[in-house]
Specification:
Helix content is 46%, strand content 14%. The protein is an alpha/beta fold. The protein has one domain: Rossmann fold (3-Layer(aba) Sandwich), CATH 3.40.50.720. β1, α1 and β2 form a beta-alpha-beta unit. The N and C termini lie far apart (48 Å). The N terminus is likely disordered.
Length: 291
């Protein structure tokens, strides 16, 4: 495949986790609009049907985001194939239903390795490319759970909150280089998140049956009934990437909007109710360090 044959105006995307869900829907949409794509998955043979009709504009490669070697190889392949990377989409990951006390150290480390450190590796590896280009867009698939804590999802919320904070700070660090950052915060969408991609833990605790147990039951009952359409989410992500002024955060779905608005109202309520205590903790000769 020769990048010289590709239209200069088309963007080059690198999307992780393209075999199913948001990654697959977005990969399809990107190719249909005429952009170029390095589609990645832990089992790239699953991407054959996705890329076979786009042999000049798509390439499928193996990428396990927990492997630094795989990450660098994917970046190198994208550059060798297309000459640049315009959009990185960190999509690979999975859910976990468990109360915090139910999660072992090993389970916690493995979960964060995929759901946070994997995205971190990709961002750190692609940034030298984007800085040299003087342009680029990093799109991180977060969740409503990146802003709203849900009982029975402590580790999942923790990984997404970490991704949110990292991304918000990163946006300020790379703005002067022409690199943009957008967090995608979906609600419930009809992907396999509620099914194959939903992890549980080895040891459950009966005391949390009404929390993590009830959450797991809810996810199973919702599977296939989620209100969100992944194809429409893909178009929304493309719209954000093509915008001259993309948002830092893009919530997707009416449920996401409602839950995030409720969270913001609760934060404001607490700030207002405890304002006197908040401001009482300064030295009397305090200096305003707000930036």
């Amino acid at each position: 495949m020769n990048s010289d044959k590709n239209p200069i105006a088309s963007k080059v995307w690198l999307i992780t986790g393209c075999s199913t869900g948001f990654g697959h829907a977005l990969a399809e949409a990107v190719l249909q609009k005429g952009d170029r794509l390095l589609a990645t998955a832990r089992k790239p043979e699953q991407l054959g049907a996705l890329v076979e009709h786009y042999s000049d504009t798509a390439k499928a490669v193996r990428l396990d985001v927990t492997s630094p070697q795989d990450v660098q190889a994917a970046i190198d392949t994208a550059i060798a194939t297309f000459g640049r990377i315009d959009v990185l989409v960190n999509n690979a990951g999975h859910g976990m239903i468990a109360a915090l006390e139910e999660v072992s150290d090993d389970e916690a480390h493995q979960f964060f390795e995929t759901n946070f450190f994997g995205a971190l590796r990709l961002m750190q590896s692609v940034l030298p490319v984007m800085r040299q280009q003087g342009s680029g867009h990093i799109v991180n698939l977060s969740s409503t759970a990146g802003l709203v804590g849900f009982g029975g999802s402590s580790l999942y919320c923790g990984a997404k909150f970490a991704l949110e904070g990292t991304s918000e700070a990163l946006a300020k660090e790379v703005e002067s280089f022409g690199v943009k950052v957008t967090l995608i915060e979906p609600g419930a969408f009809r992907t396999d998140f509620n099914g194959r991609s939903l992890a549980t833990v080895e040891q459950s605790i009966d005391a949390y049956a009404s929390v993590s147990g009830a959450s797991l039951q809810w996810f199973k009952e919702m599977d296939g009934q989620q209100p969100g359409d992944p194809a429409k989410a893909a178009q929304a992500i493309i719209q954000a990437v093509e915008s001259p002024h993309p948002p830092l955060r893009l919530a997707l779905g009416t449920d996401a909007m409602s839950l995030i608005q409720e969270k913001l109202e609760r934060v404001k309520t607490d700030l207002d109710a405890w304002q006197q205590v908040t401001v009482s903790t300064n030295y009397s000769e305090h200096v305003n360090y707000a930036r």
